[in-house]
Amino acid sequence: MPVVKLSHIVSFSSEDKDHQADNLLKGNGGKWKCEVGGETNPSVVIQLEKAVQITSIDVGNDGSAFVEVLVNRSAANDQNFQVLLSAQGLMNPTESRETTSTGRVKIFGKQKLSEKISQHKWDLVKFVCTQPFNKRVKYGLSFITIHSKEEVKKEVATSHSNVIIEEKKPAVKFGGFKLLPDIKTEDENPAKYRQYLLDEAAKHGVEISIIDKMSVKTKSDADEILNEKLRNKNKMTIKKNGHGNSTKVDRDSDKSTPNNQKRKMSVTSSSGDVDLPPLKRKVVRQPVPLPSSPSTSSKPSSSKSTTPQQVTAKATKTSTSKDTSSAKLPNTMLTKKVEDKVKEKEKEKVKKSKPRGGILFPSTTNVRYEEILKDVVFVLSGFVHPERFDLRELATSMGASYAREWDHSCTHLICAFRNTPKYKQVLNSDNKGFIVKENWLHACDREKKKSSNS
User: Fold this and answer.
1) From CA 249, how far away is CA 338, in angstroms rounded?
2) pTM: predicted TM-score of the whole model, two decimal places
3) Of the four, 19, 116, 290, 294, which is 20 to 30 A from 55 by CA?
4) Is the peptide bond before 386 cis (omega within 30 degrees of 0)?
5) Residue-wise pLDDT tens digits, 164-198
6) Alpha-helical regions (H) of 93-138
7) Are 96 and 137 in contact (CB under 8 A)?
């Protein structure tokens, strides 16, 4: 949006001898302050170069608690100014009394301006400052930048064969700086790429922390974090399975096969590929014969005793064919095998319900991630940056709405500890909302659903 040139100062209520109103026209950080500390509603009226439709206003503060912007036309010859921007806060009472954060910069976009007034063109702008919390200091503004509706200039260059139209857009300025145009290389939807990272991490069985997840802004960020996690996982696997052995072992890790299906290993050596038996072998226990009578037990044991070679041959035969071995076993052993299968299925259900990679992925859900907390309006209390920023980003990515102060529309107060001012406000207010810790927010993110408020 083009910057409107400030022509001259029409009038002002008062000015400090060292910080005059003309400094606002220079645009180099010159300040305008009132003449006496604690003055009531000092104001300055500025004439624009031409009548324009104002779309946004950048205000550099210098000790003012509130600022209000009014507009008029010089041809009207009256003082009937219209309110373009209602009084907006630049400093809170604590900052005003302690004279801290006096140089804050505020950008008031089109959504802050009066919709009815901003549709017309104006050439007189009046700024009114107030500071009711500190009667000792002189206050005013450090700079003013007004943006108007962009006007596309078309330059037509004719040739023998065709007509070429070139459009030139003016550079965007912010105070004394020029802003680069926004270049959107990817779809700016961090929630989509964070969900993509979680899905890919679940497929490969790697852990993704909350910090890694919240740092993802684009798809390239997600791919970079995922590749790093996979490299670390491969290094750990090599360390565990290496032990100085030069034999290469390839495991079939296809997750589409059932868990109860036995995996095979192929050992690659100079002689070729050799199929090995299953990794876990079940030891087949021979049934112990019961003593039938004293006469049978008194018989010499040499006739029924077997050599170790015979035992090895029997074990090899039973391990080659699962069906034939189960057919030869007695009924008690078959019952035990059925019980073992039931236990294995129960373990598989427990594994599916456990979090993979530190994050719970429920098998069935009808709620999209960005709609988990769509009916929640939350307020933060007791947190400082960067944790405050991370919690706000996490909640809004799940569809929650953020509010600075507690009012009747708020539903949750996410509090770091007890007895904060907002904590007491919620307890004493008519709107009894829920007071929760940040663990509730992490639980909603981990379980992919709105957790209980307890």
Assistant:
1) 32
2) 0.38
3) 19
4) yes
5) 454 555 666 666 676 666 555 545 678 888 888 88
6) 93-98
7) no
Beta-bridge mates of residue 130: 66
C-alpha dist (Å) from residue 397 to 75, 259, 435, 436: 50, 35, 20, 18
> How far is the CA of 406 from the CAs of 249, 256, 287, 402, 439, in angstroms?
61, 50, 74, 10, 20
* CA pair distance 31, 18, nearest whole angstrom: 9
In whole angstroms, give the CA distance from residue 140 to residue 319.
91
The answer to whether residues 215 and 205 touch, using CB atoms and an 8 Å cutoff, is no
Indicate the helix (H) or strand (E) that contains 424. Answer: helix 421-428
Rounded-to-integer distance, Cα 57 and Cα 61, Å = 12
Mean model confidence pLDDT for the chain: 75
What's residue 83's pLDDT?
92
The enclosing H or E element of 353 equals helix 331-353
Radius of gyration of the chain (CA): 38
How many Cβ atoms are within 10 Å of 65's Cβ, its own excluded? 20
Interhelix angle 219-241/190-204, nearest 10 degrees: 20
pLDDT tens, 362-393? 433 567 888 889 889 999 999 988 888 999 89
Phi and psi angles of residue 246, each rounded to the nearest 5 degrees, phi first? -85, -5
Strand order in the sheet with 32-33: 32-33, 140-148, 54-62, 105-108
207 conformational bin, left if phi > 0, alpha if psi -120 to 50, beta if neither? beta
Q: Collapsing DSSP states into helix, strand and coil, what is residue 346?
A: helix
Residue 427 banded pLDDT, cuts 50, 70, 90: confident
| Whole-number pLDDT of residue 93 | 92
Contacts of 427 by beta carbon, 8 Å cutoff, 6+ apart:
435
Query: Phi, psi at residue 440, to the nearest 5°?
Result: -60, -40
Structure tokens at 80: 């009937």
β-partners of residue 82 are: 71
